[in-house]
Design a protein that fits this description.
3 domains, five-stranded antiparallel sheet, 7 helices, 31% helix, alpha+beta, 398 residues
Length: 398
């Protein structure tokens, strides 16, 4: 139907949506079998090459190791499927609504326990092809706990997210398209629950009729409670010092990104070594210079990320921002409160691990002339960034 495109998709037409678990089981086993079949000859080739003095053969060891990891993941996903089955999501409203709510309920085949938590993550994702690779870019992300209640011998999970306007709608698969994904995770005895749902979300502006579980509000309130102006169990501090409110982001915040930069830099460095050892001609130096340049840039980033700190002080009349590297002043800026027009949130870096993307957000001061200055960074999930935005706005009297 032209005005209801979600009904054209058989997986969505009833409003009851199965998780991607079954296809994940098949896909993971197919990928693991193909990878291990292709890399199997290396088990015999590598020892022979090393015995012959070809030290570059050590690079080939990575392929069998990756194959072992892929097989482990396939086994893990299979055990999860056998325990929880397909898992069905019933949306309310149907479809999910941009400018309204994305809500619904899931019945999980596990007994109800009051102290057990189920974390949800709603994502708007752009998937696109870059040469032969398929990549994803998270356009928007919001997370929070589901509301759990007993349902016979099972557990009912209810949720409802507030979705901003002007986000992309669900689109048909193409070389570049947008889709919406709901992730569900919980640490359970034996086998953990990990489910993904690809759901229809369109700009209908509809609200839930039966779901009272306001996941977005719970996430915001939980994050806001952490900002007691006395620190807390967070990777940064929010505290009051006399007439000042201080935001302090210490060294050692971006360990994950640092490790990622070092791994890629090491890969480029290994490429430089391999080329110089095996093809030391004039043309090879072009690759050496290019790979060496990227390895150097990534190494510098890896040196900067974990050793820089950000100190922001919000006073009654002025704002002071100081960034340091290894304790040495690196950047300093002072401004009057009258220069600040608004406080906004911007999407920063993102990392993907085991198919799960974590987006980090920045809180920015919007100054006259539409200039922006960062006062908080590396915030995840979005609810934490929104809570800190609320604290800063309150301090600035907005």
């Amino acid at each position: 139907m032209a005005n209801q495109p979600w009904l054209d998709n058989p997986a969505w037409s009833t409003g009851k949506i199965r998780s991607n678990a079954r296809s994940s089981v098949k896909g993971s086993w197919l990928f693991a079998v193909i990878w291990n079949a292709v890399s199997a000859p290396l088990y015999w080739v590598i020892p022979e090459e090393l015995a012959g003095g070809n030290q570059a053969a050590w690079i080939g060891v990575l392929f069998p190791l990756v194959g072992v990891c892929l097989a482990y993941v396939a086994v893990k996903i299979t055990f999860e499927w056998r325990r929880f089955g397909p898992t069905v999501l019933k949306l309310d409203p149907f479809p999910g609504a941009i400018g309204g709510h994305v809500g619904g309920e899931v019945i999980v085949d596990v007994g109800f326990h009051r102290d057990r938590s189920y974390e949800l993550m709603l994502e708007c994702v752009r998937r696109y092809r870059n040469n032969e690779d398929t990549r994803e870019e998270v356009k928007w992300q919001s997370g929070g706990p589901a509301e759990a209640s007993p349902y016979g011998r099972q557990t009912r999970l209810a949720f409802r997210f507030d979705v901003p306007k002007e986000l992309p709608e669900s689109e048909q698969e193409d070389t570049s398209y947008h889709f919406w994904r709901l992730r569900m995770q919980s640490d359970l005895p034996g086998v953990n629950l990990d489910r993904n749902f690809t759901i229809p979300v369109y700009a209908t502006g509809e609200n839930s009729r039966r779901i009272d579980a306001d996941t977005s509000a719970v996430a915001r309130e939980s994050a806001l409670e952490q900002f007691d102006l006395g620190g807390g169990k967070m990777p940064f501090k929010v505290e009051r010092r006399g007439d000042w409110v201080r935001l302090f982001f210490p060294m050692g915040r971006d360990i994950g990104s640092t490790v990622g930069c070092l791994v890629v830099a090491a890969g480029f460095g290994g490429g430089v070594w391999f080329v110089m050892e095996n093809a030391p001609d004039v043309l090879s130096w072009v690759f050496v210079i290019g790979l060496g340049f990227f390895a150097g840039v990534l190494s510098l980033i890896a040196l900067f990320l974990p050793f820089n700190s950000l100190d922001v002080r919000l006073g009654e009349q002025e704002i002071r921002i100081q960034r340091r590297w290894l304790g040495l002043p690196f950047m300093r800026r002072w401004m009057h409160l009258d220069e600040v027009q608004d406080v906004s949130i911007k999407k920063g870096s993102s990392t993907t691990y085991m198919g799960k993307t974590t987006v980090r957000y920045r809180v920015m001061l919007v100054l006259r002339g539409d200039k922006e200055v960062g006062v908080a960074e590396g915030l995840t999930p979005l609810a934490r960034a929104e809570a800190l935005q609320s604290v800063i706005k309150g301090r600035l009297g907005m």
